[in-house]
Specification:
64 residues; alpha+beta; three-stranded antiparallel sheet; 31% strand; globular
Amino acid sequence: MEIQWRKSSKSADDEGDACLELAEHDGEILMRESDHPGVVIHTTRVKLRAFLEGAKEGEFDNFA
């Protein structure tokens, strides 16, 4: 089965910048950057949801 990668419509721009793509395969969530498609991060829905909730709450806003 071929993996169906998806990206946000907000990622599309005229400059061709890279974006994050997500897919679901064998019960895992896969994530990659479009300009480095061979590097894939494997995670779960629970872990990704926890990360996204933390990001929405500003937990990662203070990187120097």
